[in-house]
Amino acid sequence: MKIILKQAYEKLGNAGEAVSVKDGFARNYLIPKGIAEVATKKNIERLKVELEQIAIQDAKNRSSLESLAKQLNKLTLKFELQAGEEGKLFGSVTSQMIADAIAEKGFDVAKKEIEIPEAIKTDGSHFVEVKLDKGFTGKIKIKVKGI
Predict the structure, then answer these.
(1) Single pTM value for the model
(2) What per-residue string of b and e applies to 68-89 under the rule 16 or more CB within 10 Å gives b?
(3) 71 and 59 within one domain
(4) Is 67 helix (H, G, I), strand (E, B) or coil?
(5) Could you give the residue ranges of the DSSP H alpha helices within the chain?
(6) Backbone phi, psi, residue 34, to 5°
């Protein structure tokens, strides 16, 4: 039986591909689970339109992620925290503090996207990476001043 995959399925192919499988496998497993549908002219045309729309949406997301990464590269955040002798902070700058400061600047970044290479526990300038979707990253400069 000739079917069209609605989503990627291991050992068969990726979404949008037309493949041949045994009738029982298609009727009893793939079609009821929504993984595939019968390859008719109508279904093929509809799937082509859906895949084009998905490609357009991915291109829009890609350009917005790229611009967000560029804006994050220009961003500098300043924190004033209590510090002891030799500029050591009582505590550290956390990813939640950074996410809140980024939100105040008008950007939407989740706490889990922020990667701090080592704990920020001293005065001075530090850099933090923000790992966005699809391999885009932004680098934010963090300036810490002890009070």
Answers:
(1) 0.60
(2) bbeebeebebebebebeeeeeb
(3) no
(4) helix
(5) 23-25, 41-74, 95-104
(6) 80, 15
| Residues 137, 74, 90: CA angle, nearest 5 degrees | 85
Q: Encode 13-52: b = buried (16+ Cβ within 10 Å), e = exposed.
A: eebbeebebeeeebeeebbeeebbbebeeebeeebeeeee
| Residue 18 DSSP code | E
Give the total number of structural domains in the chain.
2
Same domain for 40 and 9? yes
For every one of its 147 residues, what pLDDT tens digit does the chain have, with 9 covering 90 and above?
Answer: 999 998 888 888 888 888 999 999 999 999 999 999 998 989 888 888 888 888 888 788 788 888 888 888 888 999 998 888 777 888 888 899 999 999 998 888 888 989 988 888 888 899 999 888 777 888 999 999 888
Answer yes or no: do 88 and 32 share one domain: no
* Alpha carbons within 13 A on the beta-carbon side of 36: 27
